[in-house]
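Fold it.
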Amino acid sequence: MIRSIVGLGSVLAVLTAGLIAVPQADAAPQKKKPGVLHVYDGAALFTETAIDRGKVALGKTVFDHETVLTVDTHAAVPKDRKLPSEPGERAKFFESWAKSAASGDRAKGVYVLVCRSPGYVQVLADKATRDRGFTAENEQRLRDMFTTAFKDAAAAKKDGKSDEEILKIRDKSLSNAVEYVSGVLKGTIK
């Protein structure tokens, strides 16, 4: 009987040691997350079809961390803001506007502010997205993609192209933005 108790004690000791060595639940690999696209198209720059396609495309891409792209368009500068007349001050103005507009859910990930008149695009990435490798150069590249497309759309309008053709140019910029952000951030694990 004493042997049985000692044997049982040895078994319990081994089992207890085994349980302690089991990895904790919070050490389990994180679940991949689909990307999210938010478009607040106050300037009516994109078609609903393009917005829906962008949401589906980014949603089908999975990331190790939350990945959000927000595109916020405005027809003009809000009445409560004063656009500076000096060209050198405009960049600061739009950056300040973007920072104040990028709040709540809009502050997550990559935020793009588009003003139709005067034409301007401002891109901001939050700290978590920057830590994942989305650099100031990536912000500039994304800004240039939109700016170029909007200039091309304006030129097409001047050339007498149809509204449908002009919308296709702008819609393509949204598609390209989704693809670009996905390409830069996919596979980042930091």
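The longest helix spans residues 136-158.
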